[in-house]
Each structure stands twice: as structure tokens, then as C-alpha cells.
User: What shape does this take?
Amino acid sequence: MNEKRIITCALTGNWGQKKNNPNIPLSPAEIHESAEAAIAEGASVLHIHARNDEGMPTCDPERFAEIVEPIRAKHPDIIINLTSSGEHSFTDIAPDEKRIAPFYRVKSELGTYDCGTLNWMHKTIFENNPQFLEKLGTAYNELGVKPEIEIFDAGMIDTAKHYLKTGILKAPAHFAFILGAASGMPATPENLCFLVRQLPEGSTFSANGMGANHVPIIMTSLALGGHVRVGIEDNIYFKKGVVAESNAQFVKQAADLIKAAGLEVATPKEAREILSIEKFQNKQWD
Assistant: This one.
């Protein structure tokens, strides 16, 4: 499996709107179509946010089910990675229980675990306080969901190590380096190299870069033995001045870079093995 690389596709996020990129999928039907095309190009993990009828982020478990269940029915091996970020606006964030509720409704192999609070887009606070992280980790353990430990800044790795020691998080851990967000670490190869050196032994990781450096981050992650995340959630532009046409466009680019590096795109079955999904579903952690 050393030559296999997982592509995660972040289909839509909490923030982008049609005015930013008319190709961003917001409705369940649009997300289904986008997911289908991304899978065809090599994505084995789908990172899922949900939007309401007005295109705003929602924690509604039924909306998540409306998105996920048709994908699952057609592609049972695809790994679903639900967000726990909630109905975040520029003034408020959903209560803890509301953010966790979709995981009790929808089967999800992975769930995001943002290891800290940070200023977001220079406008608001993306809050992930210790009480929430303990509740979320406990829920994941109960449900057999593997946390995707999202790291926006270096100190968040130490937070993850703390929860690995206390048992809130279980090994083997999987980290996702989200670089280039305002108030987080810039998306540079140097920063990614530094972060990877801080990881607990036996961890896997993926990386994505927001903005112009998304390709250098892909290439650096591959060189370091990591996996990649791409998609319109992270980049509404495919390259400078060129609006992204689709999520599949990003997935194809990532797949081409993986092959150019002499590596292979992991299938969903292979991704499940790399990420120890079965261990977490059966609650047989290291």
C-alpha cells in the first residue's frame, strides 16, 4: 500500500455561494451529480457538508441523509466523511448536540475533528472548545466513526496528542492538514514539512492548500508519503483567474499528479485498509 494515495474530494463547504462560483454544488441533486463525477475521476473519500434550500449551511440530519443515502446506495464502498463544523454563520455557531446529530442519523466512516478554535476569514470565530471536542470524540467512539483530525495550525497537533493520551481519540490517527485558511498556517511546502514531522508515530495524513498553492501542497504531500484533498470547498478557482468548472476537474488533476509521481490512486477498498476503517467500525483500536 506504500504506493497508493487517497484522493478526498471536498464537494461543498459552509461558505461558498453561486455568486462566488456558479459551479459550486449546493442542492442534494447538485451534490449527487458532483459526487458521481468525482468518483469517476478517482475520489475514494467524499467530504460532505449540507446546505438548506437557501444555500446556507445546515446540521439537519435529514438533509445529510438526503445527500448521503443515494450516494451510498450506488457506491457502497465509497468512504463518507461528514463535517462536524455545524451551522456556522458570521455571528453564531450551532449548539454542540446539533453539530453531532447527523452522525447518529447517517452512517459515516470518517468525521471531521477540528482540534482547536481559530478566527475565521477575519470575520468570526470557528469555535471548537475542549468540552465540544470531548463530546464529539466520545460520540465517534460510540458510533465507530474514525476522526479526521483537521489541523489548521501547529498547536492543534499537541491538542490531538493530548486527546490520544486520554483516550478521547484512538490510534491509528488520521490527520488532515488544512493550509491557507485566514488565521491558520499559510499553504507552503515548508509548513507542511514541519507539520508532518510533529505527527504521532503510525499516523496517516492528507493535505490540501487553499488558494494559489494548492498544487504545491498536493505535490509536497505526495512526496512525504501523504494523501490529498481537493475540491471547490477549498478552491473556487482552478488556477489564477480561472473559475473551477467542477469538483471532478480537481480530482482529475490530483490523479494525474499522483500518476506522474509514479504512484497509484487508491481505490475505495484500498483507502479503507489504509485508514483502518474496519478497526474503527468494530471498535478495535490500537
Summary: The longest strand covers residues 146-151. The chain has a mean pLDDT of 94. The domain at 4-281 is CATH 3.20.20.70 (TIM Barrel).
